[in-house]
């Protein structure tokens, strides 16, 4: 039996992973020149990264039109606060892009998926653009939820909804069956922060 030793790594129970991508990106780039694709990506990635950082998250990777970000793995808070910050980041990115033309001419629509759970964190990789900073099934769950999110929405798993229910308003959506999962995934659409409840707590 092989024993895996985790050096300079730690296990965390409540890290939230965010995935966002552009709806119809493949069909869009098939009609564009490489320079136009690059200009669109730079504008888009800059917007997403700014919002993620402002909300206390870390950009883990960029792939094509997808961005993966992590909340609760660095110094930007943890637990319900980090999960709520991740949801707010998803909503804020969509608000920042709504009605905007990337690179001055490309309208975009996005979809966001978030999941919260246990991961192994490698602090040495905890910087923007890092790779494999975290490991755990929650990464795959967030990616799958993003793929099933309705256009221009932020959807979360049941754990994320449970830990942020007092901070974010949600709408329940029908569960989805995804390849590789033996059970349907519950789906919740994030609507807006619960500002009234936040005010009453502070």
Write a structural description.
35% of the residues lie in helices and 32% in strands. The chain is α+β, with helices and mostly antiparallel strands and 202 residues long. It has a single domain (10-201), classed as Alpha-Beta Plaits (2-Layer Sandwich). The strands form two sheets. Strands 1, 2, 3, 6, 7, 8, 9 and 10 form an eight-stranded mixed β-sheet that branches. A two-stranded antiparallel ribbon has the order 4-5. A hairpin with a 2-residue loop joins strand 2 (58-63) and strand 3 (66-71). Helix 2 (34-54) packs antiparallel against helix 3 (79-97). The radius of gyration is 17 Å and the shape is globular. Mean pLDDT is 86; it is low at 1-6 and 196-202.
What would the keywords be for this entry?
eight-stranded mixed β-sheet, single chain, disordered N terminus, Alpha-Beta Plaits, alpha+beta, 35% helix, 6 helices, 202 residues
Give the secondary structure arrangement, pairings included.
Layout: E1 10-22, H1 25-29, H2 34-54, E2 58-63, E3 66-71, H3 79-97, E4 101-102, E5 106-107, E6 110-121, E7 134-135, H4 137-148, E8 154-156, H5 158-164, E9 168-176, E10 185-193, H6 195-201
Parallel strand pairs: 6-8
Antiparallel strand pairs: 1-3, 1-6, 2-3, 4-5, 6-7, 8-10, 9-10
Helix pairs in contact: 2-3
Summarize the entry for a quick read.
The chain has helices at residues 25-29, 34-54, 79-97, 137-148, 158-164, 195-201, and strands at 10-22, 58-63, 66-71, 101-102, 106-107, 110-121, 134-135, 154-156, 168-176, 185-193. It has 202 residues and is α+β, with helices and mostly antiparallel strands.
């Amino acid at each position: 039996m092989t024993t895996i030793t985790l050096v300079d790594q730690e296990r965390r129970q409540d890290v939230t992973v965010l995935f966002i991508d552009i709806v119809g990106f493949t069909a869009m780039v098939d009609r564009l020149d490489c320079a136009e694709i690059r200009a669109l990506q730079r504008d888009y990635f800059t917007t997403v990264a700014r919002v993620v950082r402002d909300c206390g998250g870390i950009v883990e990777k960029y792939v094509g039109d997808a961005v993966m970000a992590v909340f609760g793995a660095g110094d930007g808070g943890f637990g319900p606060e980090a999960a709520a910050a991740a949801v707010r980041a998803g909503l804020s990115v969509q608000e920042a892009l709504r009605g905007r033309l990337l690179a001055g001419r490309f309208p975009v629509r996005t979809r966001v998926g978030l999941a919260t759970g246990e991961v192994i964190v490698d602090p040495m990789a905890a910087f923007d653009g890092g790779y494999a900073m975290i490991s755990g099934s929650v990464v795959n769950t967030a990616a799958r939820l993003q793929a099933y999110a309705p256009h221009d929405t932020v959807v979360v798993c049941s754990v994320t909804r449970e830990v942020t229910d007092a901070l974010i308003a949600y709408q329940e959506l029908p569960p989805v069956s995804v390849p590789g999962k033996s059970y349907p995934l519950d789906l919740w659409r994030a609507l807006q922060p619960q500002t009234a409840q936040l005010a009453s707590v502070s």
